[in-house]
Amino acid sequence: MAVLWNYSTETDHYEVRQAGSSVRLYRNGVHHSQWNPKRPLAGSVWDLLALPSLYRKEGAIRSACVLGFGAGAVAGVLRAVASVEHLVGVELDPIHLSVADGFFECTEGTALVAGDAVEWVRAHSEGGLYDLIIDDLYAESEGEPVRCAPLDDEWFHDMAQLLRPGGMLVLNLIEPEKVPHLAPMRDAALSARFPYRKVFWLEGYENRVAVFSESVLNRETYDSRLRAICRTFPASYGVGRRYLTEDL
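^ that's the sequence the OP posted. Answer follows.
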């Protein structure tokens, strides 16, 4: 694996590495982002964050906000497979955004915001801005990913405020046991607003991606769109067998 770029600050060390057509960002040894334009669906955790959009008809997800943008892997997948027109990426680490722009080629037409995602969400409470909000808010400590945003009821209500009618919330969690206790599973208002719920995962990974949707998550639409993606990107053939899901 070739090292394309590395950079150190007083507290952090960054590396961009390339293996074949795949570009990867590491910070302090933790794998933060990965992108392969020839294989946008590669059986990775970043795939799982974008897959819920395929349960809606093409064009239904026009705008999306990615909280914890990293170097833009999820944005790349959304643009390649979900035809999302308008993207906003919020990322605490401005160096990640520089890498996204310089190496990942995932930022065209994307509004990049360097700042605290929790503060940013609470400052944009006018509502009705996005069809899809993805929460992937993780830093690292001693080489392990650590969540850096709350999982309380207020946070879910704040994110839900930014959704258009029919929208969905998608969250990446590294602790599977927390999924049944998330606010949309308990809070009466959130539970009523998001009646369609799924969880995605990959065999061998702890990560669980929880999906809370106001609109039906149509499996036939998902299967059809996944087949079309594999025709467009033959390197992604067969990857759908890796994705595991169940209703919540």
